[in-house]
Design brief:
With 220 residues, the chain is mostly helical. The protein contains nine helices and no strands.
Amino acid sequence: MVIFVGELTSTSLDTCRWRRRKQDRPAEILISALKSFTEKGYAATKLDVVAKQAGVSKGTLYLYYESKETLFKAVVSEFVVPQIAKAEEQAEHYTGSIKDLMYELLEQWKINVLESELSGIPKLIMAEASNFPELATFYLTNVIQRTRNFVTRLIIMGIERGEFQQCDAKLAARTFLTPMVFSAIWQHSLAPFDEECDVDEYLSFHMNVFLYGISKGKPE
């Protein structure tokens, strides 16, 4: 709540709008950048276009993000990494089975990532990694490896609880995650031309097959 003291003039209104607007600028720039990165790719994204779509000047953009590389890293840090942190926190307090947790995490990923503009980032990284190795390394470290490590820990917990068979947890984590990455890439490449592709059905089938393969006994 904002409490105004004294007369509320047009000047004070403009000042309040400016202050609120200034606070919103970084988020607006990041949203514009995410849209541009996922639609055009990293190389083809122009900072003057990002700035214009965010309603700021290119000079203002540089006040917050000194380069396109910095901007991309900020997009990943602000939009992608929190999704992983949220999953990690959920797992820490989850009281059900690891199988049920993995089903829930997949459903949440479909809603928060696959059905959002975030799903375009894996395709961008795969397509442009060789041209921008520093960005690829940043993404590998902060997103891919962190996610793999998280899923690996879940599978180890499942083994320790007797839900899963003894297996190579790291390989199992890769097996779990790969179809998810593929689905995100497919969404932004061939999916519009493939009428037979139902990504939701595909991921559900994958999950059932995966859990059947590593579970002790048939999954419920």
